[in-house]
Amino acid sequence: MGRVAATRTLENWLRRVGFVYVAGTDEVGRGCLAGPVVAGAVVLDPGRHISGLADSKAVPAEERADLFKEITAGAIAWAVAAADPAEIDRINIHQAGLRAMQRAVLALAPLPDIVLVDAFRVPDLPMAQRGVLHGDRRCAAIAAASIVAKVTRDRQMIELHGTDPRYGFDRHKGYATADHLDAVARFGYSDAHRRTFRPPTLFDTMG
To answer: Which domain, by its residues, includes 115?
Structure first.
């Protein structure tokens, strides 16, 4: 996937029609075998331009870290929240991602007047919201939320590797790479793994 610069076109229009605080929210870690799903929520400062905002998957790790610093230093508000593997197993990954985004949005101070969401509608929010298809590529606030969530989650997975280095979480961050699947075949699932989310290759590996 090529990198596309996200814009503030939608946010600027919403501010012109009366929404003061416009937040973006997004989650990362949906397709992983291990670790939490982490959501970010960001209200960008309209007076501070941040160059290079794009979908976190299209931004190199070193640049993501730099953008994380710039976003968190300059945003009007930002927050992160998560759903752990036990919660993911209990309510499914889709619902867990929605709950993480809800928690991140509700942790913002001040609360936003409207929330822009990457494709989905987040339940139980007390403010207006709008789903934006491919929002993490198109909308600066959603892209910023994606970057904040991605950097936060990657750091958590590196910390998890420090406590249990058998699976190589520092390399693959919980995704179903070949070496991750090999480690699961050797050691079984750890407490960090999601029991209800297994690709076909993992069934083949584990028998």
So the answer is: 9-206
